[in-house]
């Protein structure tokens, strides 16, 4: 089988994922773990977010952060693909193994996503619901929703390949959200919510792995550098559209080191990260950072960039520093190729919290919690600046 054939068989629905660099001395974390364990024995109902929640909620209240609105791929899709005619789904076991009631929801992990933890930290709900959830109620809308769709990207063609929600479609649903919100609250209040929301954007991985390195269309039209510039153009158009809806606060997640995914190492038959793929991600992220700065100045945005490339590299290089023991493979099946439908019904590792990856592509709930902590720290600094 050709390399392209292998990609077509395995590389559907990929995701950007992230981790956090912990800079304090290890002795600090050892002491904190001991303290948390001691408190948990006495008060098992205490939230693990307690150390972060107080300051975060103070700041979000002070600066009127109204809700969280999410756009992107499977890194932030809580189940929108469940409602689509696509094979890119995860609403079956073992996904959701550690979610509430061990329920698979369509999240590509064993539990909650980073955006769920952020929502809890700022005092809204414990989860961000998918906008296409048939059980979503009008009264849930003011707390925020996710329009994200697994396997999508900045390039609308990336979404077309897998029949999922493009960025254009996600923005169309934002318009629907606004209409429904106006029905629930006054037009003035709806505008306030949209203007003070935290807009989260997390995608880009599928554009490279599923689109550029798989499908023949874009490589015939663009060199890799030209394709990166095209993605930046699409990113900019999306942010400008959000700005017209009222967006003033933005969290943008970069692209992870693509070549470090267990699946990619397997496909390329390498024990170490694939340099070609990592170089593409690094190059795009550098351009993305520059573009964010330009948009901040042009549109008057408060914007945070999440450096998933550096964070993932650190976590995979020093897994024990983050409490992990395994960073080279996922928890589901062999951990080298399984994700999405190929993970369905597979056995899993006994301790997902010891793994960086849940399947061969997507991180575990614990990793998403680390991502959320990083986001909250960055947002706190941006709001306070």
UniProtKB/TrEMBL annotation:
Pfam families: Lipase_GDSL. GO terms for molecular function: hydrolase activity, acting on ester bonds. InterPro entries: GDSL, GDSL_lipolytic_enzyme, SGNH_hydro_sf, SGNH_plant_lipase-like. CDD domains: SGNH_plant_lipase_like. Belongs to the 'GDSL' lipolytic enzyme family. This is GDSL esterase/lipase. It comes from Clitoria ternatea (Butterfly pea).
């Amino acid at each position: 089988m050709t390399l392209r054939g292998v990609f077509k068989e395995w590389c559907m629905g990929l995701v950007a994922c992230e981790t956090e660099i912990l800079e304090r001395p290890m002795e600090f974390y050892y002491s904190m773990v001991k303290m948390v364990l001691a408190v948990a024995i006495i008060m098992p109902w205490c939230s693990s977010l307690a150390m972060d929640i107080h300051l975060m909620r103070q700041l979000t209240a002070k600066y009127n952060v109204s809700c969280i609105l999410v756009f992107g791929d499977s890194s932030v899709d809580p189940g929108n693909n469940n409602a689509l005619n696509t094979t890119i789904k995860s609403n079956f076991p073992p996904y959701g193994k550690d979610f509430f009631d061990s329920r698979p929801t369509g999240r590509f992990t064993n539990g909650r996503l980073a955006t769920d933890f952020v929502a809890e930290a700022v005092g809204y709900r414990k989860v961000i619901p998918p906008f296409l959830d048939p059980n979503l109620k009008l009264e849930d809308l003011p707390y925020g929703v996710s329009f994200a769709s697994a396997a999508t990207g900045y390039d609308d063609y990336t979404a077309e390949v897998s029949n999922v929600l493009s960025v254009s479609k996600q923005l169309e649903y934002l318009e629907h959200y606004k209409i429904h919100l106006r029905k629930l609250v006054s037009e003035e209040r709806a505008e306030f919510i949209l203007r003070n929301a935290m807009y989260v954007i997390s995608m880009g991985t599928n554009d490279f792995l599923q689109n550029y390195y798989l499908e023949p269309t874009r490589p015939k039209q663009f060199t890799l550098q030209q394709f990166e510039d095209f993605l930046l153009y699409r990113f900019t158009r999306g942010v400008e559209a959000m700005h017209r809806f009222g967006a003033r606060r933005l969290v943008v997640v970069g692209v992870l080191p693509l070549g470090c995914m267990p699946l990619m190492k397997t496909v390329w038959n390498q024990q170490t990260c694939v340099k070609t793929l990592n170089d593409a991600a690094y190059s795009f992220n550098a351009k993305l950072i520059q573009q964010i700065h330009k948009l901040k100045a042009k549109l008057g945005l408060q914007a945070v960039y999440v450096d998933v490339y550096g964070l993932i590299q650190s976590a995979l290089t020093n897994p024990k520093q983050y409490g992990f023991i395994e960073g080279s493979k996922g928890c589901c099946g062999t951990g080298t190729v399984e994700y999405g439908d190929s993970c369905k019904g597979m056995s899993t590792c006994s301790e997902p919290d010891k793994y960086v990856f849940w399947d061969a592509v997507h991180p575990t709930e614990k990793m998403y919690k680390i991502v959320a902590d990083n986001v909250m720290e960055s947002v706190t600094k941006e709001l306070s600046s």
